[in-house]
Design a protein that fits this description.
The chain has about 170 residues and is of the alpha/beta class. The protein contains six helices and six strands; from the N terminus they run βαβαβαβαββαα. It has a six-stranded mixed sheet with strand order 2-1-3-6-5-4, sandwiched between helices. InterPro entries: MoaB, MoaB/Mog-like_dom_sf, MoaB/Mog_dom, MoaB_proteobac, MoCF_biosynth_CS.
Length: about 170
C-alpha cells in the first residue's frame, strides 16, 4: 500500500553574523530542497549568532501553529561565536541523538575527521521537530539529501518522522 505524501510546514533560520537574504546560500539550499520535495516554507529568518536571539526566534516558531518543523543552519561549530547547540538544547523536550551521529558519519565519508567539529543536533520541542545543521551549503545539502528528505516523507518505510507529527504532543 502506497502512502500519500503529507506536506509539512517548515521554517528555516540562518544563524550568522554576516549573512543577509541576498547572500544566504545555505538557507537558499534548504528552502530549495524542501519546496522541491513538496513541503511548504512557513517562515524564514536570519539572526546573529547570539544564544538569546536564536532562542527568541525558535521559541516564537515553537508556539506558532503554522510551523511543524524548524531547520536551522549555522552556529554548530566550536568557535567562541558558535552557540546554536547551547541555544536550542534547553528548549528540547526530547533529543534525537541519532541525527547528529548519522550526519557526522555521512560527513566523515566526504570530509574525513573534520566532521567531528560539527555539533549538529535534533530534537522535539512543543510537538515540533528541530534540526540544527552546519552553515555550509554542502552540510545543508548533505543533511537534507541523506537524512531529512526521507524522514520528512510519510511514505518512507518502515518509519519516518513525518508520520509521527500528530503524535508528538501525546501525554
Amino acid at each position: 500500500m502506497t502512502k500519500e505524501f503529507l506536506p509539512l510546514s517548515i521554517s528555516v533560520l540562518t544563524i550568522s553574523d554576516t549573512r543577509t537574504l541576498e547572500n544566504d546560500t545555505a538557507g537558499d539550499a534548504l528552502i530549495s530542497r524542501l519546496t522541491q520535495a513538496g513541503h511548504k516554507l512557513a517562515e524564514r529568518a536570519i539572526t546573529p549568532d547570539s544564544i538569546y536571539r536564536i532562542r527568541a526566534v525558535v521559541s516564537n516558531w515553537l508556539v506558532d501553529d503554522k510551523t511543524q518543523v524548524i531547520l536551522t543552519t549555522g552556529g554548530t561549530g566550536v568557535t567562541g561565536r558558535d552557540g546554536t547547540p547551547e541555544a536550542i538544547t534547553p528548549l528540547l523536550d526530547k533529543e534525537l541523538v541519532g541525527f547528529g551521529e548519522l550526519f557526522r558519519a555521512i560527513s566523515y565519508q566526504r570530509i574525513g575527521s573534520s566532521s567531528m567539529q560539527s555539533r549538529c543536533l535534533a530534537g522535539v520541542a512543543n510537538g515540533k521537530y528541530i534540526f540544527c545543521v552546519p552553515g555550509s551549503v554542502d552540510a545543508c545539502e548533505t543533511a537534507w539529501d541523506h537524512l531529512l528528505l526521507t524522514q520528512l516523507d510519510a511514505r518512507t518505510m518502515p518509519c519516518n518522522f513525518a508520520k509521527l507529527v500528530p503524535r508528538l504532543t501525546e501525554r
